[in-house]
Design goal:
- There is one protein chain.
- This protein is an all-alpha fold.
- Among the domains are: 81 residues; 122 residues, no CATH class.
- The chain is 88% helix and 0% strand.
- The protein is rod-shaped and about 150 Å long.
């Protein structure tokens, strides 16, 4: 109530002059280059330091005046107290002006906030978040953004892993088809095409034929072992793909490793193929002997 009474009774007559000084101050400020937040903070610190020094000087001077009891000092005290009263009056005016400005700003902000809320309600029909609710909402969005980035990185890794696995599967399927084609060619070359389908009927032939069947069975078991080894290596590769993708980028080094591994496998395959080729002549000779014996049995039976 005291502040309001002061504003009504004392401040209003000076309102025009104060507003004029404010306009002049704003014009001078507008003519100056814009200040950053750091510069503003420095100016505020300087103002605080100067105010503190002024207060210290006033307190020291007041103490000196009060301690001096001479007649001359009484006149000095009166002048000093008048100066302090003028200073306090100016501070009072500044405080009241600042209070009035703050009230006006608060009113303007409240009115602007209500207008913005009404506008947002017209578009969304929802209440605007404020204060802690808005902070929680922003933190929630940041959390979702972090999760999204993490999931996107995981998806990229999974896509890369899927591409490598798909390529490995294609290579192994090609090798499997190649081995099957070679097996069919070997059976055709040995004159026993479809051997795995007619094995039971071949067992009724002579003991020499049974020996040959055993050898061929060993060959099939060896090939089956190769397939099992390949499946095992596929499982091992799949288990190691994820850490390899993360730890051994770029993929050029991985490709070089796969090339070396492929060359080793090819060398092993060439060695096995060379061994099979060396045994092929013997098997062909044995098949010819078996066929000759079969023809003799048929001839004698007829």
């Amino acid at each position: 109530m005291n502040v309001n009474s002061y504003i009504v009774k004392e401040k209003l007559p000076k309102e025009v002059a104060v507003r004029q000084r404010l306009v002049e101050t704003l014009q001078r400020v507008a003519a100056q280059p814009a200040m950053g937040q750091q510069e503003i903070d420095q100016v505020n610190k300087q103002i605080q330091v100067l105010n503190s020094e002024i207060n210290n000087l006033n307190e020291a001077r007041m103490k000196e005046v009060e301690e001096d009891e001479s007649p001359e000092s009484k006149v000095g005290k009166l002048s000093f107290f008048r100066q302090n009263a003028a200073i306090i009056t100016r501070k009072k005016e500044q405080t009241a002006e600042k209070l009035n400005e703050l009230r006006s700003e608060i009113t303007n902000y409240q009115e602007e906030m209500r207008e913005k809320q009404d506008q947002l309600k017209q578009f969304s029909g929802e209440q605007v978040l404020r204060g802690e609710e808005f902070k929680r909402y922003v933190n929630k969005l940041r959390g979702k953004s972090s999760v999204y980035k993490m999931k996107r990185a995981e998806l990229s890794d999974l896509r890369a892993e899927y591409g490598i696995l798909s390529r490995t599967e294609e290579i192994l399927k090609a090798k499997d088809a190649q081995l099957l084609e070679q097996l069919n060619a070997m059976e055709a070359q040995m004159g026993v095409s479809g051997f795995h389908e007619t094995q039971e009927s071949m067992e009724k032939v002579s003991s020499m034929k049974a020996t040959i069947d055993a050898r061929k069975g060993e060959t099939l078991e060896e090939m089956s072992g190769m397939v099992m080894d390949l499946n095992k290596k596929i499982a091992e590769r799949k288990a190691h793909l994820a850490p390899i993708i993360k730890e051994l980028r770029p993929l050029r080094q991985k490709m070089q490793d796969l090339t070396v591994d492929y060359n080793e496998k090819k060398h092993s395959y060439d060695s096995v193929a060379a061994g099979l080729d060396s045994n092929m002549a013997k098997l062909e000779q044995e098949v010819k002997v078996i066929l000759l014996i079969i023809y003799l049995f048929i001839f004698l039976a007829s």
